[in-house]
Every structure is written in C-alpha cells, then in structure tokens.
Request: fold
Amino acid sequence: LKARLTVDRDFVISDLDRRVFGTFVEHMGRCVYGGIYEPGHPTADEDGFRGDVLELTRELGTTITRYPGGNFLSGYNWEDGVGPSDQRPVRRDLAWFSTETNQFGTNEFMKWSKKAGIEPMFGVNLGTKGPDEARQFLEYCNHTGGSALSDLRKSHGFEKPHDIKFWCLGNEMDGPWQICHKTAEEYGRVALETAKVMRWVDPTIQLAACGSSHRNMPTYGSWEYQVLDHCYDEVDFISLHTYFNNNADSASEYFGVIELLDAFIKEVAAICDAVGAKRRSHKKIMLSLDEWNVWYKTHKIEHMRKPGWPEAPPLIEEVYNAEDALIVGGALIAMLNNADRVKTACLAQLVNVIGPIMTETGGAAWRQTIFHPFALASKYGHGRVLRGVVDSPSYSAKAFPEIPYLYSTVIDNPADGTTTIFALNRSLSDSMEVDVDLRGLGKERSLVAATEIHHSNLKAVNTKDAPNTVAPKTNSDVVVDGEKLRIKLKPASFNVITTK
Ligand code: AHR
Reply:
C-alpha cells in the first residue's frame, strides 16, 4: 500500500491540552485497594501507596486523574472518606455491590496525586446528593480557612487548600443503572444549580456536565441538548464516555470504532454549538472524554458484581491484547485531531479495573499492551496539532462505510523544535509506504526516534510472567530527507516518528 500525508506549519488545528492524557481511579474492584493503595505491600510507602504502581503511573505519563467514580460517585458521601481512618464508616456500595472501608478518601488521593505528579479531577455526587453536598465538599477542599469546613480540613492535617480545579457534575446521569438516574430535565436543572453554587464558593474552577454514557444511548443527542439548554452559561465542558468492543471478533471491523469516536466527538461539538447558536452565545463548550477505553471481554454483570458484598473484589480485570493496543493508539489519534474541542480525556481506568497497569495483590505490577500507545502519545504529545491532509486507500466495513488504511496526526512542538507523526496502518495484510511532507517545518531535519507497536499475533497479551510480549520496538524503515520523510509501516501497526 502507498499513502501520503501532508502538513503545513501554518495550518494548525489547535494547541494540545495535555489534560487529554488523563486516567481514572474509581473505588471499584482493585483499582484503589490492591491497585494504587496497598499498605503492607513490599513496595508500599509510608502512606500505603504502592511504589511499583506509582512508578508505572509516572512512566505512563498521565497528566490528570478523575476520582472517585464512576458509578460509585452517585452513592458516595465525601465525609466518609476524611478524618481519622479508624473512625471512618464501612458502607455498602450499591454501584458495585461491594463493601467500602473508606480507608482511602479525598486527602489520601490528593497525597497520591502529588506523588504521581498528576492534577486531580474530582466529581460531586448528584445521585443520592445534590448542590448542598457539592458546595460543602468544595469548601472543604478549596477554601483557605476560617470557615467550618475549611477548618475541618485543617484539623485533618491539610493546612493548605487542595485547590482542585476540575470538577465533574455527577456521573452518567442518563444511565438507568446509575444510583438515582435522572431525566435530562431533572439533571439539567440540578447541574445548573450545582454549578452556580460551586462557582460562588470558588470562581476559579472548571465544571463538566454529564453528557451521554455512550453514543448508543436512546437519549443521545437530545440529552446533551436539553442538559445544556439549562446549564450552558454555567459549565465549561460536557462529558463523553465510550468503551470500544470487538464483539464481532474481526480486526478490520474493530478499527471502525476509531471513526465512530471521531464522529461522536464532532456530533457532540455540533450539539453544543447548536445550543450556543440558539442563545447567540460566543462561548464554546469544550469536550471532556472522561471515560474511554476498550472494554468488552469483561462487560457482563458477573464481572461487575460478586456475591457476598466483598471488599475490593477483582472486577472487570480486562486483559488487553495487541489489537486493543492499536485501537487505543487510534483513539488517541482521533482525540488529537479534535484537539480544538477535546481538552480533557481519561483512559478508564488506571490500574486493574480495565487498566493499562495490572497488579497482583501482594505481588508484581506490569504493563498491559494498551499502556504503550498511551505512554508514547503522552511522551511525544506536546505542542500544536497540525491539520493533516491524508491520501490513502481505504476499505469499507459494517461499522463505518469508508475507513482509510492510514490514520494519522502530526504534532509540532515549537518549544523543542520536534515534529512527531503518529500513524496507524489499519491494513491487516499489507505494509504501507507513507510519503510525508512537513511543509515549512525546516529543511535541516533528522530523525530523533521511530517506534512501532506491532505483533504478528493480534491476540498476544502481556502477563505477569511474560510482561513484554507486546512492547514498543524501533522502526528502522524511516528515511528523512529535509522536510520529506518516507516511512514504512508494518501491517496492523501503531507508529510514532519524531524528527527535529
Ligand atoms: O469505568 C467503569 C464504569 O463504566 C464507571 O463506573 C461508569 O461511569 C461507566 O459505566
């Protein structure tokens, strides 16, 4: 196969918001307990945080992490998770039918995020709770002092405010599975009033309203419109959630989900703009893709709920294979190509629960296949996204009528002079020669690094005993000639090529 990719240094989609390299930590299964937090683990530090997981989190390069849920959020009392740990209540969590000990809560997460080097993204419970709890929680977290709740935080050992800037107004409120699911009308009103009082407590925060839980929801489209019709002026973001599947067990169909993600993003942006147009507003609502990943092998109720209200049972511990890594790489390209609207995104979740990092309680931690495209994207995803013109043969699938074999994006980083091409070859059988023209980006270029993720067996996985089966390798088929590059991509491969 042959394809061409052309960019021009002056044709810019947008600066890239590094918060698109976010992840998600929910009180679910072994994400918190046995994942990021495991006192007594051989690598645990003085706070009980697993050192091996912290190290892998830093290597993953995640920039922001959403907490504490997820469906868990809609039944959560923030007060249960603060203060002396021996006085914290043990509760039944109705989202995952588990027992929650509350030994880990807001202050532990804030300590962990400092050690991990990430920014926190918090959610307020708009299921069983409402605006009153939300404003109180925000005051506890962000107010300097001299009020009951900020002084309570200080009495818990946190003199300085946490200064949490990004807040989600509930979680998946359109989903009937949600604890206290709401109609768009009910949610739009409560999101508006919650946003209003939260801004009065702290005008520096950014707020995200819940969009649809996925693109196939029966209320998709009308949900976004009605919700924003209420709260457009008070929120900055609307969320999108999406989980990809290969239920058809066909890799070429599976690649179509990347096109569907691109469509999803553009559709939600269009709906936001329709509400803005009706209001004659100059404001643009940005998109927070704050849950996305591959999730289908463990998407059955028996993987989500275990009998007997166990503490931190293994739930949805999806094992990722080589083709899943290509999908994650492709989804990251889709986000970058929509960098003018997608400003935050969270790979769901971080560890064990549909996570790029897997652990054994008491034992090892390792990188799943999907770890690698994410880490590469975060490592090289700095600067401005350029508008690429792609000329590639394509194929058609049930999932999407026209799927170009080449899927790519180009990031230019004026800060260090590098330009990086991310390219996915979606042909399962053919390698691809790509001619790249980096117009106006400087004739004295040379290769910095060329990395590929490829495995001849698309079902290959990483395990505790074979953790590097699917791992990045050097692509030595790259020729740089000034602003022109010729790159050979293996069939079914995700590639990252940096020049300077
Ligand atoms: O990430 C797992 C679950 O998926 C989250 O709790 C929920 O928001 C979504 O349905």
